User: Fold these one by one.
Assistant:
Number 1:
Amino acid sequence: MARAKRASRSHPIRRIAVNTGGGDAPGLNAVIRSVVLCALNEGWEVLGIRDGYNGIFKPEDYPDGGLVPLNRTRVRGITHLGGTIIGTTNRGNPLRYPTPMPDGTVKEVDRTDDLVRALAAHEIDAVVAIGGDGSLTIANALARKGVRVVGVPKTIDNDLSKTVITFGFDTAVSFATECLDRLHSTAEAHRRVMVVEVMGRYAGWIALNAGVAGTADAILIPEIPFDLRTVAKKILRRAGAGRNFAIVVVAEGAKPKGGKRSVLEKRLGALERLGGMGEKVALALAEMTGKETRHVVLGHLLRGGTPTAFDRLLSLRFGAAAVRALAAGRSGVMVALDPPTVRYVPLAQATRRMKLVPLDCDTVETARELGICLGE
Ligand code: F6P
């Protein structure tokens, strides 16, 4: 009761919406469950918007409705499930919505005003937006237009500023590390160089953390443009010492010194798709070292499956903190992990700049000290 009162600074919250945007990440369902249960405790109704904001923009695509009522039954038994029960998309950003023009061309148009109107028409008093940089930039735009909104930082890439970690990252790193463990035995059996490409977009967090934890011989991250000659030397040095195999981790966004990232696709209304650097590195290393080389792309495997206990707990804490923030009358903020607690940071600050691996961080230093080649 007291909480509902605090929320009534402008008008009381009766109904909130939750949405999940961008690439999925393990822990999304745990956040949804937490938001729903905590909101129900506040006496609020909860709707899930399908596939980012598509449930609002294109209700005709959803015969069962673009807005899903979320109750206790709907969120039962989902904490450990990967994916998201309300769907997500990394297309259809309302700030750059692909819209057909009268002349037949398609242009990116800012449709946030339509979104604000639609939220009001559905009597949605507040939104919990779960997403990465793109989704939280949209959330910030909504907040600036007067919508009560709290963001929850999601991404396996861990590239969001102002939170020590995003949920989904721990699961991705744990799985990538397990893959590196598995690849060691086959690499050694065949005396091969195994090149492993991991996601992470423009940040090298997954590659660096999994690479160090999984005892890779070389790790190439976007923050350190690489020179493959140093990697080849390391491989040959190992071979000279009787270690006839090597594991090289390549972040999808890594690029050679003076060269470019490997981009697969760029579509209207969507971010560019990265990929292919693992294969390029493998081909070049095969030529430079004369060693049999294979490449593996872990790709979306890093996003699927059961969240680790760390990610589940973080997701549940983030969801509860988001509702707590709304109940306290907060808006325009993102929930952030600041151990041992969770705090709130303005969305504008959280989305201002990408969190890249600092070159002077101790994990980079540790990698160097352990003799891992960073392609420098
Ligand atoms: O941002 C999460 C992420 O998995 C990135 O690491 C990757 O570059 C991208 O999404 C892949 O997107 P998609 O699912 O569209 O292939």
Number 2:
Amino acid sequence: MKRLNTQLQEDGCPLELILLIRTLLAACKEISFRVSQGALAGVLGSTLSDNVQGERQKKLDVISNQILKDILSESGYVKAISSEEEDNVIGCNPEGKYLVSFDPLDGSSNTDINSLIGTIFSIFHAPQWMEPSDPSAFLQPGTQQVAAGYVLYGPSTMLAMTTGRGTHLYTLDKTHGGFLLTRGNVQVPKETQEFAINTSNQRHWEPCMQQYVADLLAGDQGPRGKNYNMRWVAAMVGDIHRVLCRGGIFAYPWDNREAKKPGKLRLMYEANPMAFLMEQAGGGASTGHGRILEVMPTDIHQRVPVLLGSADEVNACVGYYKD
Ligand code: AFP
């Protein structure tokens, strides 16, 4: 079976980026171990010795953030970090070539029920002019990502990643600690009969989204002419993984619960990396009004509406926004 390193080399990934990705994944392996300990996390200690101290009372998302922060900032490859768990950008090596944004533990409310969670990451080139703690350097559109992916902590630990040469799925071989390619060049089926959306928010959506979902629910008697099934993991990593594996549409649209929040999910470390993975797998990734990857960020914690998945279904949904 092909190792991650070999695949990255075949995809023409520069050496320093390969080294950064391997460093980031070392942190994710540590998180995978912690997550697998469940309620025992923090009691049994770290596999990477002293990186995380006094974590006994900390929650897994805080521990995961600390692990990523420690390992990435010590690596030398990273100029600055931005995390869901940090209000501000963290400056690292002024000579570092890359910027890394991450959600250390997406779906963290699932930790209480031993369900799917994961780490999502996005990597950009660091502009030479930037000061390490300058947040404006992160404000690049998703089209500028050099690599993105997630590590899913499920029954097995899986990595989905793209460096712009297709989306590949790897499985962590816990016997030797390496990620092995288990599905190269994933292609999301163009059509689907499966959707994922939190329908408890239905009354808050825009009329176009209400109409779209009403038409899905009408099944073969409605305008879409087919019956749909619904799934909701409540962790974007879990839902997107399913969509990458067998198709579907995942939507977290704009809603009017809080006027200042144009959606729930974060552009820099949720929407952008998932959009990159999805497009590289032949799927669609839209806000309803345009390509997610072309959104020009104004804030490192900015929120956006997302429609991600099978290309024909995403296009069908976008069509309701135009009517
Ligand atoms: P948490 O990390 O706070 O559990 O949020 C997860 C998430 O950001 C995303 O992973 C899910 O798709 C979405 O929120 C679930 O949202 P609902 O609370 O509406 O189910």
Number 3:
Amino acid sequence: MAQLSQPAQNCVAQDEIQQQLVAGLLAAHAHTSPKYLYDVLGSRLFAAICELPEYYPTRTETAIFALHAQQIAAAVGPDAILIDLGAGNCSKAARLFPSLQPRQYVAVDISVQFLEEAVNALQQQFPQIEMTCLGMDFSSELELPAALGMDRRQFFYPGSSIGNFAPLEALMFLRRIRKGIGSSDGSGLLIGVDLIKDKAILNPAYDDSLGVTAAFNLNLLHHVNRLLDADFRPKDWRHRAFYNSEQHRIEMHLEARHELTVHWQNGGVRRFARGERIHTESSYKYTREGFVDMLQQAGFGAVQTWCDPNNWFMVCHAQVA
Ligand code: AVI
């Protein structure tokens, strides 16, 4: 198993992270990037969310991949270089190996350490696939090492993670992927997208009855405390998640239970009134037509789509033009 790391992108400077966080906390409408939801505990809580009965995206996407495995494999084509963006424990890609039969698998994620364990285990199971780990923050930069071949590159971006970008950022991200794919025939993008639906389904998916999503959201405060040496107390805050039907997005916020003041390093301070919120994540939902249109605006050619019987979730394959 090869490990390619890109030092310049691998470790975003600590002070850049701190400046970005402080700017968000001091904004009139306080906000933080959703990436701060994912420290070690946050990643485990997210894995637990994916098992919740209310959180339909994971199991619905898995069912689409299983039900349409042959058609999806025909769209992707064999012998691809499968580039898994945000690979995590690599389980989603691994389930597709038997049908997709890629020649090479490139697992990309911010933490290369976490990837290594997963990819090492996978390599034993699939010795015929050449495997590579790549540590990079692909949300801001998607420059792949030249050592990776250009022929039959297939990017894989499942889980509706595209929904965590605002629509304009999503379009720019898709353009970066389109650029990174190159123009060889048989290259493309396989992506999972969550669709607009009734808020009676959407709201509980982000505000579950066990409170796992609440813990996931509140855990961001522990993470920010470590990053900024701040004194947020999770018990002073309440999880809020709701569908904003004008913006077609779930919004997650942390809401102050009472008036409070938070301090952080170098004399940083912010007072929050009772009920004031920190916006921690948006999860945009799309129509089939709207997302296909975005893929085409990003420079992709033919698009194939597969949905579940309820039309809750969609898997798309977009070819290079
Ligand atoms: C990772 N991402 C696609 C999840 C979503 O549904 O937007 C993150 C999440 N936030 C709360 N629950 C799940």
Number 4:
Amino acid sequence: MNQALGTTALNTVFDENRVLKQELLDGLFAEQKYINSKFFYDEYGSQLFEKIMQLPEYYPSRTEMVLLEKYQNEIADAIGENKVLIEPGAGNCEKVQYILPTLKPKCYVPIDISADFLFECASNLQDKFPHIDIHAVADDMRAKVVVPDAFKDHDKVVFYPGSTIGNYKPNEALEFLKHVRETAGKKGGLLIGVDLQKDKATLDAAYNDEQGVTALFNLNVINHVNKLLDSDIDTELFEHVAFYNEEHCRIEMHLQSKANHQYHLDNIGQVSFSEEERIHTEYSYKYTIDSFSQLAAQAGLKLENYWIDDDALFSVQYYVAL
Ligand code: AVJ
């Protein structure tokens, strides 16, 4: 297995931290406060997300895995053989394992920011699939992808499961799709998991689970902020708010303050929260096959085929470069 160290390695970690801190401060001092949803995923946050994926109310992950497994032959037929499969934000490389046996790409390039974890997962995967060249890249998922020389002439397919695309606002999603189109190049493709619009009750329940795991996940972002900013904002003074906004076709998650409270941040100043004020923490946009394929078309990607479950909860869609 090849391991490629990305640009965020070692010497730039410090810079990266400064950028993240500044991003948090911009959000906390904004008129309408916000914390980007990427800050959910510290170690405990990632564990909580694993738990969310097991919840009876949270259908997306489960449904996507069933689709990938059930339609692996059709997916492989649509994509074709001998591709270079690129996965931005691959994490534990779990989902790709449903399609690797039938798709049989020449090369698999998982990209993720957490180098150690990625390399460990990639190495385990290499043992399981000795005939696929696994080339892990530790970098930001928007980094320019460098494919090993030996595979330069193979067509590229980007794999983007998990409905992660839903966290982007439509204009950001379009930017990301354009980046994908550029990465995939001529004759390239995109296999993507997209969550579908459905009745409000099902969506509200998926983000307000009975056991309160999603609430813990949302509140934990404050712990992560405290670590990064060296602050002591009281999580107990916030409550989890999540609902489906039908007008904008998106789940909105917020943290609502239960009281007036304020904190002094060294060298920065005073940050205050008033009773009932909300910090916006996440959007999770829901699409139809039509609305998503129209967005992708603007990025030069044409819908080739798609697969949905019997209850039309979730979709896996395959696009080719125009
Ligand atoms: C990781 C983006 C797929 O939007 O459903 C789960 C994150 N937030 N519960 C989603 C999440 C609250 C999730 N994604």
